Fold this sequence. Notes:
Elements: H1 9-38, H2 40-61, H3 69-73, E1 78-83, E2 93-97, H4 99-108, E3 125-131, E4 141-152, E5 155-164, H5 171-205, H6 207-225, H7 239-284, H8 291-322, E6 325-328, H9 329-346, E7 350-354, E8 361-364, H10 366-383, E9 389-395, E10 399-403, H11 435-445, E11 449-454, E12 460-465
Parallel strand pairs: 7-9
Antiparallel strand pairs: 1-2, 1-5, 3-4, 4-5, 6-8, 9-10, 10-12, 11-12
Helix pairs in contact: 1-5, 2-5, 7-8, 8-11, 9-10, 10-11
Amino acid sequence: MIRGRLRKLSHQLAFEMVVVTLAVFTVLVIVTIGYYFLDKPELRRLTLEMQVRHIVDAMRRGDDPTAWEPYRRYPKSYGFRVFNHRQAFQRSIIAQANPELLQSLETDAKGPAVNAAAGRDLLSGVTSITTADIDGDGESENVWLMTGRSEVGGHIYWVQAAMVDDPAWQWRSVLAGELIDHAVVPTLFIVPALMLAVYFAARRALRPLNRVASQASELGDALTSGRPFTRLSGEGLPLEFDGVVSGINAMLTKLDRSLALQKEFTSDVAHQLRTPLAVLLLEVSELPPGEVRDRISQELGDLAHLVNELLNFAQAEDAMARQRYDVDIGGVARKVCEDLADAAFRSGKQIELDEPLTNVVVSGHPVLIDVAIRNVVENAIKLAPPRSTISIRVDADRTVIVEDRGPGVPDTQKELIFRRFWRGDKPRTLGSGVGLALVRRIAFLHGGDIHVEDRPGGGARFVIALGLAA
């Protein structure tokens, strides 16, 4: 099963919070826009407030407020007047744009907020007035009027701004400002602060879980390297994870016991079979020479080899757990070649060894490494054709490569041959079915693995990787 790229839980949490932030921002934008579109009076009020601010700011800068484009371009839709006093008997107009619009309000509507020329004082506020046709379309108009008070250069001024509809779409600037105040600013300042707080709080809460993850990783290494299991610690974990850790520890207890029983059973069976097999071999040797005796001797010899392999398999993890040494792979490979040189010569083959000038040292068990290399080389001697060479090479990256010129391994069997007791119908699979499985287990115990590939020119290339540096 192919898994995607793995991410830390804290990073995934941060990503999820960013997604939530974007979702919240989107919701704020939609709600803000929807609110002002549904509340038209509020949007008109804010638009008039913006016009009043623009007029006052222009006066403070010494500019002419009537030069603003909406007043020149839409004279029947926007207008304003500026008075120097609130009370009717004291005030006078000091600036105005499109006065006809406001005069029509005085003619068609009555009220203290509108009738500034009727001898009434000005009152701050916003009002909506229905008047006669202003823009010539034959329909009455709904005019919005705001009266506000501002100080410019130490003087108090009263500003009246009026608008009919909003052909200049000034509401867009108002809505943009509201979005900045109610959506952008909270998203940029408040939400990131909350995100950081939640992120660091989550990281702090996840520390016990990180500790358990580290322990679980060490547990996996212990499983492959043959070291005893260490139970996971549930100290400081939330209740939800404490149950998970307790369940894992219970499974580890059962697994440890099951593995121990399996190793004991395999070892006991192997020990119990060795003695009767040795007696049988001795008795068979006393039979009259012939094809039957040879066939029985061969079968018993294969069975004795299987028993020895099973015993080695059962004892491999115990050997690694008891003691580790600094092992020179080149020296072990050299000894294997010396031991098997005679067997190769008698079968019409030769062995060549290529090793680096400096020692290639791994942390492990020399007997197990010897067994692993020996099994692969013995298989190569059995399957290589006469007058061929078996090549063994030790590389500085702690790998041992064994090449032969035999029939090779089909692609469909390149993994199957490393399974215990798997025996196919090809010459490459002759044997007990345990040897290559034992080699893989020994490689695992040393932090590595073994695989087979095709040798250029024909044959098989076995690569034993021993990953634990000394």
